[in-house]
Amino acid sequence: MKLVEPPSCRKSAAALVLIGRNSRGQWVVQEQAGLYGGLFVSRAEAIKYALFENGHHPETIVELSRTIELDTNGRFAPIGLLLGNGRRPVA
User: Fold this and answer.
1) How far apart, in whole angstroms, are the C-alpha atoms of residue 8 and residue 84?
2) Record's superkingdom (predicted)?
3) How many CB atoms within 10 Å of residue 79?
4) Phi and psi for 81 in degrees, rounded to 5?
């Protein structure tokens, strides 16, 4: 039997999941409220994780063209500041 970590408890189709690269070139996934996130070596793995965590809602995933840093302190910047002009839907 394969054990799999369950998706985050709070599910909201309206919650955006941001994907982009950080200043070191790693792929970052960050849910807009900071409920979950992580660092990944490939875009494919970042998207796979984001889809798993958001209940397979690709329409809520936004890929940023500018750098994004993973916030581990729960002080994520307001969504408008992060999206700016670099907003581009993944799906």
Assistant:
1) 27
2) Bacteria
3) 13
4) -70, -35
Please state, in angstroms and rounded to a whole number, the distance separating the CA atoms of residues 3 and 24.
32
- Span 29-61, pLDDT tens digits: 999 988 899 999 999 999 999 999 999 999 999
Specify the DSSP class assigned to residue 22: -
Say how many residues make up the chain. 91
Q: Are 29 and 38 in contact (CB under 8 A)?
A: yes
Q: Please state the pTM of the whole predicted model.
A: 0.68
- Residue 57 tokens, joined: 């809602």
Residue 45: count of CB within 10 angstroms of its CB: 14
